[in-house]
Design brief:
Strand content of chain A: 5-15%
Number of domains of chain B: 1
Helix content of chain A: 40-55%
Structural class of chain A: mainly alpha
Distance between the termini of chain A: 95 Å
Strand content of chain B: 15-25%
Strand order of the largest sheet of chain A: 3-4-5-6-7-8-9
Number of strands of chain A: 9
Order of helices and strands of chain A: HHHHHHHHHHHEEHHEEHEHEHEHEE
Number of strands of chain B: 17
Mean pLDDT of chain B: 87
Number of domains of chain A: 3
Low-confidence stretches of chain B: 1-18, 55-70
Oligomer: heterodimer
Chain lengths: ~500, ~525
């Protein structure tokens, strides 16, 4: 380092030179701000070194308070002597990083509040470090020393803030919470999906755009073309922004996928310079591309109904992919916790009769029919503690009678109930008024008669009643609510 | 390298003897020195670094990485109860499957594929484009087009076309989901049947039923979870591998049951042996097997124990479940079933009884659909009529029974063959044959699904005007199988099993498509 910090004239020269550079930087930021338009490739080339250079001044700046504290210990006063140099190095590093950052932002076509905040934060870090350095030179008496300490704390805070914004720029606004463990997330009351202030407009899930297209943009595009960055002045986070287009003009030509810049870009060969998503991000799958094609060719409407799943293009039917839901085991376990011990008790007593509907749910399904006559009124009582969790139950061919009606009536979440080939009668049916979620009921080959019809009619969700081989017949007069719902 | 303990070569990656002898394992571990550790550690770190340099797209597609393709469902069970019920991955539409396989490949052009243009060009030379680059089992030269042998009409509220060969099934047309654009890459029976049933045309892969029972278990522990019933006089060409278990534990393989007499041979103790004696013998055998398991830890030993126990429990339940004499005569008549026969009708009735008793996967085969025209039995004008008569009424009765009990809501029925038949008349040795027939066409065939969360009264896919090639929505066998697994509550990618360095799946290594169009 030619810059001798002990030489007062060199100090003055460094201070003045830094000040001049700050002025130049300020001019750049004010008169040539990042405007969302890509500029000279050379700028971009230089700018790409910003991430490489930025961490050095950060590390050095964080060393300053560390050395200041440790240096006050009796046995390491030499650390204090290094602080001066550290600050000078940090100022130089911060200036270099800031200039490169400007090159990246200006050249790479960044814009938006995140970039603005990151940029000004970076410049302020350099200035703050410079001020710290000046203040430290004057620091002999307690007053300036206290001020110096405060400035140092402020600088470190500023470094953290700027670094966080930088992280958001490159990894997404929710990069710290995205993979946060669920428990911690609950504790801090943050949502991991990033649906905060920076989120895109809420779109109606009833429209094709809202349900099918917007999620694709969210998943693939908005990191660079969204509220945080709008590269090429293009934002894809709202319908209006999508249709407004980029600095080159509209990117969607309604009815003409081939003529739409957006469609053109996502269908280029992946190694093409213009291919989107750029920078080796995950390309859209062929069915996702087809969805976008279908949407554009159907007129790129904002209001097209979502159930237009089969939009025809070139004679091909486009269908939505089946998405497999991801299971959050801890959430499921939490839901199950309340009754899991009871369930395992019941399972050891009656194996393979009751179990979870799926790995992702705390609902139970019950199937006793395979036990036949070995299952009856005495066995069903074991299930009573679980009754409120059961959504589907099959008692066909078992020995249950009307005595089991109270247990059945307690299964309030039941959507499907099978009582075929049992000894139950109208007396049981009369008790089932509480099953207001029931969708399907089989009383095939039972003693149920027409007097149960009024109860069936009361169950508003009921879609199918399987009433073959009962005392109800196709000739029975049925209430209008049951039209088309009785199966014989 | 030489094993210092035994002084023999131990260069094998997988040394079975050392797996089985604990002291050998110990010796091997002791032979590992600090030097080995340091060497493999530094080399390993270097390899890990080099591994990160390779772009991820070179080893797996970005899409696969993003969807977590390498993940596997945890299907571990207590080895003593290998068939215990496990919940599926997500809420299922179907709880059980009845698969009606028409071995020999029924002609779609005589059943579901209405092609007036084909009738118009009947007897004319087929277009040259039909033959270019194609391989056929028997067609030679330039074969003639052959119009449908039976008249078609529209039926049901869905207005689908059907021939006059299936008058009973026709009444349920609004419950069916026809897929007319199935295709396969196999044009011989055995490999094509293997492909349809195991997802792979080669031997040694688990069948659909095995995968399903492996994934879900089965409710009724006194019956096999996967039952196979055969009719038509012959075992399908694919043989018993069609319900084999491949690399999955053998407890998940299909159990073939006879449709008359004892359903499973030797279930009942032989004359002179009482049931308690049998129990005693099994207990002793169990003891020996348990010792064996403690010694070697081979899971197949547990499979054997479980099988012995199941066959003991099956004595009562299997005989009862298979006994169609217990059905009222009216029911037997509706199926067209005759006591003492080995028929598809009887098997359909048994299938319903098994479904009611909690059997997870019921596989029926009906042989005799290979209508080449080489003989009366294998012809469209004679044998085909018989085959249709044999299956039409029983399938219709099965659908009706499941429907009126509400069971069609969660029972998936699959009907289909292993490939389709050509639009051209077969001309074996270039001659006009005595009987009318068609050759194998892997390029297009029709299957149907019913119940179990499938959209009803719809058709997926379309073939050209001569019914020869698919023009819309081609469906691969793996797509169909992925859809079946989806209806049962599985992401087909996560139901996999590690074998030979691959996460083996029913659908193979190529990406499959769940047919969202057919999901209700």
């Amino acid at each position: 380092m030619t810059l001798s910090v002990r030489n007062p004239s060199a100090r003055g020269g460094f201070a003045a030179a830094s000040f001049l550079i700050f002025l130049v930087l300020l001019a750049l930021l004010l008169f040539a701000p990042p405007d969302g338009i890509e500029h000279a490739p050379l700028l971009q080339f230089v700018g790409r070194f910003h991430p490489l250079s930025v961490h050095f001044p950060i590390a050095v700046l964080l060393l300053v308070p560390l050395f200041e504290i440790l240096g006050r210990k009796r046995n390491s006063p030499f650390l204090l002597a290094s602080v001066d140099l550290l600050l000078c190095v940090a100022i130089c590093g911060a200036i270099v990083a800031a200039v490169l950052g400007w090159c990246l932002a200006r050249g790479g076509g960044y814009s938006g509040p995140l970039v603005q905040q990151h940029m000004w934060g970076g410049v302020l870090v350099a200035v703050a470090a410079w001020l710290c350095w000046l203040q430290r030179l004057r620091a002999g008496s307690p007053g300036p020393a206290r001020l110096y300490a405060i400035m140092l704390v402020g600088t470190v805070t500023l470094v953290s803030f700027t670094g966080y914004r930088g992280g958001q720029l490159s990894h997404g606004a929710n990069h710290l919470t995205q993979f946060m463990p669920l428990q911690l997330r609950r504790l801090l009351e943050v949502s991991g999906s990033g649906h905060g202030a920076m989120n895109s407009a809420e779109e109606s899930l009833a429209t094709f755009y809202g349900a099918r297209i917007q999620p694709l943009f969210e998943g693939h595009c908005v990191t660079c073309h969204g509220p945080a960055k709008h590269k090429a002045n293009l934002r894809l986070d709202t319908y209006a922004a999508v249709m407004r287009g980029s600095k080159h003009g509209p990117v969607i030509k309604a009815g003409d996928p081939k003529g739409s810049e957006l469609f053109h870009r996502i269908t280029l060969p992946p190694n093409d310079d213009d291919f989107m998503p750029a920078a080796n991000r995950r390309p859209l799958s062929s069915s996702e591309v087809k969805l976008i094609e279908a949407w554009i060719s159907s007129g790129a409407s904002h209001t097209l109904a979502v159930d237009a799943t089969a939009v025809v293009t070139d004679g091909q039917t486009i269908v939505a992919e089946v998405n497999f839901q991801e299971i959050d085991p801890s959430a499921v376990a939490k839901e199950r916790a309340a009754f899991a011990p009871i369930l395992s008790q019941v399972q050891s007593r009656l194996p393979n009769v009751v179990g979870y509907q799926s790995r992702s749910s705390a609902d139970l399904v019950l199937s006793a029919s395979w036990l036949g006559a070995k299952f009856g009124d005495n066995e069903i009582v074991f299930l009573a503690p679980l009754s409120e969790r059961i959504v589907a139950a099959d008692f066909s061919s078992t020995a249950i009678t009307d005595r089991s009606a109270p247990v059945l009536a307690a299964m309030k979440k039941l959507r499907q109930l099978r009582l075929a080939h049992t000894a139950i009668s109208d007396a049981t049916i009369q008790e089932l008024g509480s099953l207001d979620r029931l969708e399907s009921l089989s009383v095939f080959d039972t003693g149920v008669s027409a007097s149960s019809l009024s109860l069936f009619a009361r169950l508003s969700k009921l879609q199918h009643v399987y009433a073959g081989q009962t005392r109800i017949s196709a000739n029975t007069v049925i209430p209008p609510q049951l039209n088309g719902k009785l199966v014989f | 390298m030489t094993d210092p303990f035994y002084g023999i070569s131990r260069n094998h990656d997988f040394d079975l003897s050392s797996e089985l002898h604990p002291e050998r394992t110990l010796a091997r571990l002791q032979a590992q020195t600090r030097r080995h550790f340091l060497r493999s550690m530094t080399g390993g770190l270097g390899a890990m670094f080099l591994g990160t340099l390779a772009s991820p797209s070179s080893s797996a597609s970005a899409e696969e990485l993003a969807t977590g393709d390498s993940l596997r469902l945890d299907l571990r069970r207590d080895p003593k109860t290998p068939l215990t019920v496990l919940p599926p991955q997500f809420a299922p539409h179907a709880k059980r499957v009845i698969y009606l396989h028409m071995a020999g490949a029924p002609s779609q052009l005589e059943l579901f594929e209405y092609k007036p243009q084909l009738a118009k060009f009947d007897g004319q030379d087929c277009p040259a484009s039909f033959l270019a680059g194609k391989r056929f089992a028997f067609l030679t030269g330039i074969p003639k087009l052959l119009g449908s042998q039976y008249p078609f009409h529209q039926t049901g509220q869905s207005g689908q076309w059907i021939s006059d060969r299936l008058p009973n099934l026709e009444k349920h047309i609004d419950d069916l989901c026809l897929i007319k654009s199935m295709r396969t890459d196999q044009f011989n029976h055995a490999p094509a049947q293997l492909l349809v049933q195991t997802g792979n045309p080669r031997l040694g892969y688990p069948s659909l039923g095995s995968w399903v029972v492996y994934g879900l278990g089965t409710e009724n522990q006194n019956l096999p979870g996967f039952v196979v019933l055969i009719s038509g006089g012959n075992t399908p060409d694919g043989g018993k591998q069609l319900w084999g278990t491949g690399f999955l534990p053998s407890v998940y393989q299909g159990v073939q049951c006879r449709s008359h007499g004892d359903p499973v041979l030797y279930l009942n103790p032989p004359p002179g042996v009482s049931s308690p004696q049998r129990r005693n013998m099994l207990d002793s055998m169990d003891e020996i097997n348990q010792q064996r398991y403690a010694e070697f830890g081979n899971p197949e030993t547990l499979t054997r124990i479980a099988q012995y126990e199941m066959s003991f429990r099956m004595q009562m339940d299997a005989t009862d479940a298979m006994d169609i004499r217990k059905e009222p005569e009216s029911v037997r008549v509706s199926y067209g079933s005759k006591l003492g026969e080995s028929s598809f009708a009887n098997n359909c009735l048994v299938a319903r009884r098994l479904a009611e008793r909690g059997v997870r996967f019921i596989q029926l085969y009906h042989w005799g659909w290979d209508s080449h025209g080489a003989s009366a039995k294998e012809s469209l004008d004679i044998g085909f009529i018989e085959r249709c008569r044999e299956v039409d009424q029983p399938i219709a009765a099965l659908l009706a029974d499941l429907k009126n009990r509400g069971m069609l809501e969660d029972t998936l029925i699959v009907w289909g063959g292993e490939f389709g038949r050509t639009s051209m008349r077969e001309n074996r040795s270039g001659q006009v044959m005595k009987f009318v027939g068609r050759d194998h066409n892997p390029g297009a065939f029709t299957i149907w699904l019913a119940g179990g969360g499938v959209k009803s009264g719809m058709t997926l896919g379309q073939t050209d005007e001569l019914g020869y090639e698919i023009v819309k929505d081609p469906v691969e066998v793996r797509d169909l199988n992925a859809t079946i697994l989806n209806l049962l509550g599985f992401d087909y990618r996560k139901l996999n099993y590690p074998f030979q360095g691959l996460d083996q799946k029913l659908t193979g290594v190529k990406p499959a498509r769940v047919l969202a169009e057919v999901l209700a």
